[in-house]
């Protein structure tokens, strides 16, 4: 058992109320019934050491409510996943996330050409004035030359769309692992331009790529792809990947690029339309863009400022990362509200200040002040909000718990305008780096906890990309390497992972583990949940009030075989009663042999099974 974090922590205590087992609907498999089964504790207070031990028994918190899935009974078994920070090996994609952020901070264009996306078109090599010069066309240009220039410009626009699509794949907005169609931009004829739609007279080009993307995501190719495509459909439904929604995303990102001068880009009923921003349209319908002079001067500076009103190209940006103790911040709440509405499509009246406070601000963790004895990190132990600020603007907030043995990542919310930066992945890399740096101050602080991993949920697969990761055995609470557990998880949802590890140690699993299953996941697990957040979207806000007593399971029949193999001795369970702290053995005589005593012992036995004998003797089981 871990030593106390500090001398002051020894005077602190954990006080919990056992809420028992609950059934609820599942946010992962979207089953029609109440198939998600968890055991819950309401924590009035909890020490960082006790919460660390609870994490290592498969627990997790949502505000002050601490919950644990009943693994062998719930529809989607959730395995605690962690990574030893010092062993972390970033993948190529994770390194690209770092480089993307660095280029953005250096003032370079915000979206880059994704690696592996080949394009031999000449226009894709041009940016800024060189591109504009290549596609400029005078009003009197006709014939083959004019057609070639128009064709080049449409290729250029198609390239931009392709880059945005691939950026969304990398960020997890669009599923990876399937062949998506190439974007195509076509010229709008004069006849269609005269339609009685506002602004249609300035409509030059249009793309229907959003319809093609939506259709691809829903198309069943072959029988062996059914399971994968079912997960893709589920992801599409959750993220509203309909043609109008996709078109809005792509148009928004194209406008963020700020490199297509002379055009206005808008989404309309699933189509991405390109309009003349300044009516510079030739008789042939081609865009006329005046080439920008390369030499410096007042005219050049004026043009550049119009090109990107928010941030001039080439000017460096400043990123600040601030770590604050968990508290309510109006600016953070406004960002959270915008994120939930824009990214998760929550109804505005459902995103309230009170729900935000319960979910992400309130915490039962007792703060431990920094110490100079090498036991506590410089920031202390407890619950924190890590702010990401670019040029003075709050763009993301990571909600984390810093404990004696780990940094536990709980949730991340971010500004939808900065989706191209893959802030979920970037924040995870920053948090892993923070653990490495702070090992010098707190030797026991070694791990990065990513929350729950559900192998059957495609939105969770990205977590295993932070390797070499480990999963917690739901029976013996031993840590098992992910690559060891993966082959069996491919076959069954619920697996006693320590059995697999034992068999592999003896060499008896070699014949039953496919060679492909032993490989570490790379591209096939880069599918992040819809908000590209680590606890982006998988850590649900659990409302204890919503899980009514009508659905409460009898503790006697809850079958918590994952919690303990044998029942422990109840005599030393610590009980809180009317401000006093007593061992159960001190209360037994007061109850005598009564129905009340039998009921209490059933409750205590259920509680002891899920928290373990040692924690049951250390935490206070509150009876009021």
From TrEMBL:
<keyword id="KW-0833">Ubl conjugation pathway</keyword>
<dbReference type="InterPro" id="IPR016181">
    <property type="entry name" value="Acyl_CoA_acyltransferase"/>
</dbReference>
<feature type="region of interest" description="Disordered">
    <location>
        <begin position="297"/>
        <end position="319"/>
    </location>
</feature>
<comment type="similarity">
    <text>Belongs to the R-transferase family.</text>
</comment>
<feature type="domain" description="N-end rule aminoacyl transferase C-terminal">
    <location>
        <begin position="331"/>
        <end position="473"/>
    </location>
</feature>
<dbReference type="GO" id="GO:0005737">
    <property type="term" value="C:cytoplasm"/>
</dbReference>
<dbReference type="GO" id="GO:0004057">
    <property type="term" value="F:arginyl-tRNA--protein transferase activity"/>
</dbReference>
<keyword id="KW-0808">Transferase</keyword>
<protein>
    <recommendedName>
        <fullName>Arginyl-tRNA--protein transferase</fullName>
        <ecNumber>2.3.2.8</ecNumber>
    </recommendedName>
</protein>
<feature type="compositionally biased region" description="Low complexity">
    <location>
        <begin position="297"/>
        <end position="307"/>
    </location>
</feature>
<dbReference type="Pfam" id="PF04376">
    <property type="entry name" value="ATE_N"/>
</dbReference>
<feature type="compositionally biased region" description="Basic and acidic residues">
    <location>
        <begin position="110"/>
        <end position="125"/>
    </location>
</feature>
<comment type="function">
    <text>Involved in the post-translational conjugation of arginine to the N-terminal aspartate or glutamate of a protein. This arginylation is required for degradation of the protein via the ubiquitin pathway.</text>
</comment>
<keyword id="KW-0012">Acyltransferase</keyword>
<dbReference type="InterPro" id="IPR017137">
    <property type="entry name" value="Arg-tRNA-P_Trfase_1_euk"/>
</dbReference>
<dbReference type="InterPro" id="IPR007471">
    <property type="entry name" value="N-end_Aminoacyl_Trfase_N"/>
</dbReference>
<dbReference type="Pfam" id="PF04377">
    <property type="entry name" value="ATE_C"/>
</dbReference>
<dbReference type="InterPro" id="IPR030700">
    <property type="entry name" value="N-end_Aminoacyl_Trfase"/>
</dbReference>
<feature type="compositionally biased region" description="Polar residues">
    <location>
        <begin position="126"/>
        <end position="140"/>
    </location>
</feature>
<dbReference type="InterPro" id="IPR007472">
    <property type="entry name" value="N-end_Aminoacyl_Trfase_C"/>
</dbReference>
<feature type="domain" description="N-end aminoacyl transferase N-terminal">
    <location>
        <begin position="24"/>
        <end position="94"/>
    </location>
</feature>
<feature type="region of interest" description="Disordered">
    <location>
        <begin position="110"/>
        <end position="145"/>
    </location>
</feature>
């Amino acid at each position: 058992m871990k030593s106390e974090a500090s001398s002051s922590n020894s005077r602190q205590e954990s006080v919990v109320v056992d809420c028992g087992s609950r059934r609820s609907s599942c946010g992962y498999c979207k089953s029609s019934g109440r198939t998600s089964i968890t055991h819950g504790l309401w924590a009035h207070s909890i020490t960082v050491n006790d919460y660390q031990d609870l994490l290592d028994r498969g627990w997790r918190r949502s505000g002050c409510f601490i919950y644990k899935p009943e693994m062998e009974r719930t529809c989607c078994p959730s395995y605690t996943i962690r990574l030893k920070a010092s062993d972390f090996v970033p993948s190529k994609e994770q390194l690209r996330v770092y480089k993307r952020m660095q280029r953005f901070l250096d003032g370079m264009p915000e979206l880059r050409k994704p690696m592996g996306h080949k394009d031999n078109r000449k226009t894709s090599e041009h940016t800024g004035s060189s591109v504009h010069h290549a596609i400029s066309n005078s009003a009197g240009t006709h014939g083959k030359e004019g057609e070639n220039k128009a064709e080049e410009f449409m290729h250029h626009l198609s390239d931009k769309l392709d880059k945005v699509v691939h950026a969304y794949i990398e960020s997890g907005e669009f599923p990876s692992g399937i062949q998506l169609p190439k974007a195509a931009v076509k010229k709008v004829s004069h006849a269609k331009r005269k339609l009685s739609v506002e602004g249609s007279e300035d409509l030059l080009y249009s793309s229907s790529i959003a319809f093609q993307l939506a259709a691809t995501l829903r198309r069943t190719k072959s029988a062996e792809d059914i399971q994968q495509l079912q997960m893709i459909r589920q992801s599409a439904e959750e993220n509203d990947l309909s043609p109008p929604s996709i078109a809005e995303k792509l148009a928004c990102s194209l406008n963020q690029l700020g490199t297509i001068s002379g055009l206005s880009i808008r989404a309309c009923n699933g189509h991405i339309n390109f309009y003349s921003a300044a009516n510079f349209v030739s008789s042939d319908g081609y865009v006329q863009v005046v080439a920008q002079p390369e030499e410096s001067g007042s005219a050049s500076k004026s043009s550049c400022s119009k090109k990107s009103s928010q941030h001039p190209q080439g000017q460096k940006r400043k990123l600040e990362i601030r770590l604050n103790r968990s508290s309510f911040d109006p600016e953070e709440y406004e960002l959270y509200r915008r994120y939930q509405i824009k990214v998760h499509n929550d109804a505005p009246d459902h995103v309230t200040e009170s729900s935000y406070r319960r979910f992400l601000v309130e915490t039962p963790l007792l703060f431990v002040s920094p110490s100079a004895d090498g036991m506590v990190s410089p920031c202390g132990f407890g619950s924190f909000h890590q702010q990401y600020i670019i040029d003075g603007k709050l763009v993301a907030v990571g909600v984390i718990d810093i404990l004696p043995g780990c940094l536990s990542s709980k949730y991340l919310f971010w500004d939808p305008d900065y989706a191209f930066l893959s802030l979920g992945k970037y924040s995870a890399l920053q948090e892993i780096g923070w653990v490495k740096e702070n090992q010098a101050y707190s030797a026991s602080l070694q791990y990065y906890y990513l929350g729950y991993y559900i192998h059957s949920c495609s939105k969770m697969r990205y977590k295993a990309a932070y390797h070499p990761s480990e999963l917690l055995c739901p029976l013996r609470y031993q840590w098992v390497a992910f690559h060891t557990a993966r082959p069996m998880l491919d076959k069954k949802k619920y697996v006693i992972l320590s059995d697999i590890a034992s068999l592999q140690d003896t060499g008896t699993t070699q014949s039953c583990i496919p060679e492909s299953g032993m490989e570490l996941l790379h591209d096939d697990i880069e599918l992040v949940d819809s908000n590209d957040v680590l606890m982006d979207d998988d850590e649900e806000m659990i409302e204890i009030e919503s899980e009514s007593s009508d659905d409460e399971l009898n503790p006697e029949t809850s079958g918590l075989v994952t919690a303990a193999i044998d029942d422990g001795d109840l005599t030393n369970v610590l009980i809180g009663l009317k401000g006093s702290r007593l061992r159960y053995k001190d209360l037994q005589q007061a109850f005598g042999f009564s129905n009340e005593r039998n009921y209490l012992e059933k409750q205590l036995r259920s509680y002891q099974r899920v928290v373990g004998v040692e924690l049951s003797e250390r935490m206070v089981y509150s009876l009021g």
